[in-house]
Amino acid sequence: MHGLSDTHWICRIINNYILLLAASQSGYLEKNLTAVMSGKPAYAKYDGYTSCPLITGREKCIMAEFNYDSLPLETFPIDQGKERRSMYHVKKDIIPMIYWNMMLKGYWNGPAAYRKLMHLGTDGPEKLKDSY
């Protein structure tokens, strides 16, 4: 059984109902559906990524990104646990642009590729710290 976001109770996916969640799941769904329709077993496993942009004040936001284990899975190479005006504009301006111009057209499968780029090819700051 395959599904996204609100179908979590059918697919046994434990997560929040969030646009960024559905975008991140869509890449795994595409890989698994393609494999199954080709007669191969589904192989892609969702890491539990979700994002909660928390508006904390006038033009301030904490961009909470985490995995199934509630461990930070931050896209940007800054402390996203701190209130920032830049994160407010990501939520207000960039996320809607991504939704309307990329996700609905099938060009956005979540921030994983950008996270790797922003963290110099690693999966995030905790991986980078362990590498030296």
TrEMBL record:
Alphabetized InterPro entries for the sequence: Sulphide_quinone_reductase
GO MF, one example: FAD binding
Keywords: Oxidoreductase
Signal peptide: none
Any one of the GO BP annotations: sulfide oxidation, using sulfide:quinone oxidoreductase
Catalytic activity, EC: 1.8.5.4
GO cellular component, one term: mitochondrion
Class of enzymatic activity (EC top level): oxidoreductase
Domain of life: Eukaryota
Protein name: Sulfide:quinone oxidoreductase
Organism, as annotated: Mytilus galloprovincialis
